[in-house]
TrEMBL record, chain A:
Protein origin, superkingdom: Eukaryota
The encoding gene: SLC9A5
An example molecular function term from Gene Ontology annotations: sodium:proton antiporter activity
One Gene Ontology cellular component: recycling endosome membrane
Compositional bias of kind Basic and acidic residues: 648-658
Pfam families noted in UniProt: Na_H_Exchanger
Name of protein: Sodium/hydrogen exchanger
Boundaries of every Cation/H+ exchanger transmembrane domain copy: 55-196, 197-433
Membrane topology (UniProt): Multi-pass membrane protein
InterPro entries, per database record: Cation/H_exchanger_CPA1 (IPR018422), Cation/H_exchanger_TM (IPR006153), Na/H_exchanger_3/5 (IPR018410), NaH_exchanger (IPR004709)
Family according to the record: Belongs to the monovalent cation:proton antiporter 1 (CPA1) transporter (TC 2.A.36) family.
TM regions (residue ranges): 47-67, 79-96, 136-158, 170-194, 222-246, 266-288, 308-329, 341-363, 375-395, 407-427
UniProtKB/TrEMBL annotation, chain B:
Residue intervals of the EF-hand domain: 144-179
Pfam families, A to Z: EF-hand_7
Source species, domain of life: Eukaryota
Coiled-coil positions: none
Protein name: Calcium and integrin-binding family member 3
Keyword tags: Calcium, Integrin, Magnesium, Metal-binding, Repeat
InterPro entries noted in UniProt: CIBP, EF-hand-dom_pair, EF_Hand_1_Ca_BS, EF_hand_dom
PROSITE patterns registered for this protein in UniProt: EF_HAND_1 (PS00018), EF_HAND_2 (PS50222)
Classification via PANTHER family: CALCIUM AND INTEGRIN BINDING FAMILY MEMBER 2, CALCIUM AND INTEGRIN-BINDING FAMILY MEMBER 3
GO biological process: calcium ion homeostasis; integrin-mediated signaling pathway
Amino acid sequence: MLPATLPLLGMPLSGAGAGVADGAAGESVLPPAGLALLRWQWHEVEAPYLVAVWILVASLAKIVFHLSRKVTSVVPESCLLILLGLVLGGIVLAVAKKAEYQLEPGTFFLFLLPPIVLDSGYFMPSRLFFDNLGAILTYAVVGTLWNSFTTGAALWGIQQAGLMAPTVRAGLLDFLLFGSLISAVDPVAVLAVFEEVLYKVYNSFVEMGSVNVQAIDYVKGVASLFVVSLGGAAVGLVFAFLLALTTRFTKRVRIIEPLLVFLLAYAAYLTAEMASLSAILAVTMCGVGCKKYVEANISHKSRTAVKYTMKTLASCAETVIFMLLGISAVDSSKWAWDTGLVLGTLFFILLFRALGVVLQTWVLNQFRLVPLDKIDQVVMSYGGLRGAVAFALVILLDKTKVPAKDYFVATTIVVVFFTVIVQGLTIKPLVKWLKVKRSDHHKPTLNQELHEHTFDHILAAVEDVVGHHGYHYWRDRWEQFDKKYLSQLLMRRSAYRIRDQIWDVYYKLNIRDAISFVDQGGHVLSSSGLTLPSMPSRNSAAETSVTNLLRESGSGACLDLQVIDTVRSGKDREDAIMHHLLSGGLYKPRRRYKASCSRHFISEDAQARQDKEVFQQNMKRRLESFKSTKHNVCLSKSKLRLRKAGRKKDGSADKDTPNGKPHRASNLPDTAAVILAVESEEESDSSETEKEDDEGIVFVARATNEVFREHKVPGNGSMEVCPSPRIIPPSPTCAEKELPWKSGQGDLAVYVSSETTKIVPVDMQTGWNQSISSLESLASPPCAQAALRAAHPLACAPPRGDELRDPLAALVTPSPEPHAGFTFAPSLAKAGRSRSESSADAPEQQELQPLMAPEDRGCLSPGTANARWLIQFNRAGRL
Amino acid sequence: MGNKQTVFTPEQLDAYQDCTFFTRKEILRLFYRFQDLAPQLVPLDYTSNPGVKVPYEVISSMPELKDNPFRERIAQVFSQDGDGNMTLDDFLDMFSVMSEMAPRDLKAYYAFKIYDFNNDDYICPSDLEKTVTKLTRGELTPEEVGLVCEKVINEADVDNDGKLSLDDFQNMILHAPDFLSTFHIRI
């Protein structure tokens, strides 16, 4: 790609390098006197080194540009890059006395273009694309034909009129060729596809020489237009199929999934190029075609990897292209100036594009349901940005066949610069001025998805009834075919099951809510300043989704860990306190575990092992605390905690009693808030307190519906609550000690519930299930959960005891702990019953249901409380 | 097409034109289509007996509609008797609603009616569950369907009554501008 010398960046380096390399070479010829301690081998690494350096320079330049938001908001990045390229090119020229590092067409087409095209193809909103396929094809095919013909012919006209210097020796065919390449729009646009095709056809004409072109050749040319484009598309689809099929079987080698995507897409590009078909079209179709299946097949991590790598590559390529474009423009040896040609070209491309757009739009609007209005047309006429494709194509011209190449090169450079700089600079203000409704990024709501599908079906049905086979009919047909055959063939079963779009959207929404929630509040449920999403009814979704999120991050599968971490870096005082509270080391192992998880690929085995480790450590801690609980050692500590929590709370919700009472009482406003569906600060307050005093939550956790029914009056409940902790002093402590059990179980119920497993993508699911199962096997015999679900608290106390004993017996030192479990469990149940305002959780419980499996409803209230508690706990553990 | 004039009386045609968004030509075309549905039932001369119904079985047995989950619902909504048996009036109504000339509110109203399975003027969770089940062709478990429905209602339920009124529905639909614009069929 880059020539061998290194005048700019490595001037001193290369000089020294050459010297040393020479020395080394000399040495290697002669028998070396001794072992060289250091050898300078510049030439061996030169080419890749230069590539790397260029990309680095481009990236650094990007960083610099974006340091100032003001500049990039006004000037498009491509302008800046081209200008930078100009400057660099000038320096190179000044230093080396000859132009270096220019945009080589080969490099461009083989390495720089594919990532850009793949990126635009892969991330093309396929539904929009196919809905507007007609318009897109029209603009691409007819528009390109129109532009190239008219521009070429008009230029030929002004040449004939004698407005160009006589040195521009070019026939009509040459001008048509030039017209075809100059009508290329921005390479990122899909519309660029057709230029390439047309160019190829013209080029073959020109290479034959205009004299030899027979009438039959024109027919062939038209035919080859279709062969080239359709052939390219076919190649792309074949590779898309292969790609989808391959990714179906990568279950055990997840790591190569992203690689496969890129390799096969690139192979499609090269294959089409080899067969002189439209490579751009091939890779675009490959991206469009494979996306649905590949996305369903590959793991979540791979998906992210693909996304980022693709974006990185595309942005990299784009950056380098624009920079090299600037550099190439400096080389005056390559081009020859002709004012008439340049001005004529500029004028005609603008004129004819506008004309073409208006004409085509007029025709299209006769058929379109949603007509394109004037503003759209203006933007479309103006938006014809010529980019690197045109330049690479013009460089590719054969000087012997096209004598006017130098003039064309100069004109192309001017046109590219004009469109990129002038139009690029002005299009933003223009768009703003015209008040174009930019693609407003309204999030896909579930409603939208649902109604879209319904409408599709309805429309298809109505079309069927009327016997009119329109677009909806064919789409319906295709979807059925896809469902019956293609998806079956190309997707793994599990993915196929998961793939249902509505569910997919639901899942995505949940995740998004969670992320925005975390972003907004930092501290999800506890910070009192947290503004929950405006609609109270959304609380549930948000909360559940937060649990979701945390669950994922807990399993190490959440790649958005970064987000959470950065948010938390601004943690408030409460967080700090919470941290100290929970820094008993309980979740430290978990943090370590997480850190290693963020190193991307960790084998599932290791994950499971780590989970086990974590759990065992937790167990040990539990055990110790149980012991100490028994001897009331831990009591003072727990009281201290309570007091802390109380103090914190009285800052927010004027209730201060040093023990657990106020916190529970403060559940009342919570109830009110939820029931009245009024978003109030108290809501968050109460949730805060709920989380802060674990004990209170534990009581809630043990309560069941029956308990709620017994005590309907909330005030009553709060009165009753206070004695319970006092009467049984160890109970908060023990409850707290018990929590991990609970979390290992109440939450497990949440985790393991069928819902959850469905919400989590397959790959994550497996990982999660593994970790869960490891946890589960440690925490409880599988039946314990079911038993717990079925039975009400008192009845389930014995199983709980079993459960307690089981892991202990199985895992760690067995001796007196089971008794602890037995003794405390009933008391807990009692306490739970006395806590009537735990009914406060009942409405919430309903709202939280999305996360819980319906069959869990019996013990949902524990689940609810626990889920919250766990959120808190997890977060704190991660601090 | 030869006996075009004898199908309807001019008064009938005028009435149809007034009641729908169609021209005479389109009305006639739709009539022939209607006649095609059940040639033995629908007479070609419509001047005297305009009350002929095409039973639902005929519509539902159309091969194209075999896989469509909403065929029954559409027929029910647009038929006057609510059982899916369609008269010519119903038939014309249906396409009139789908035509480009029909105002958005009308479209929204009929879309709403299609969702409202139990005809209580609200889209309640049970209605949505039916819709989702139909849409997903039973691939989701009942719990999942429940979750989705809950979310859908949460999203659009402005007055927070746990079900979607027509206002909620229109409000939601108007928020997505290019939404009803797709609810068209060109005859």
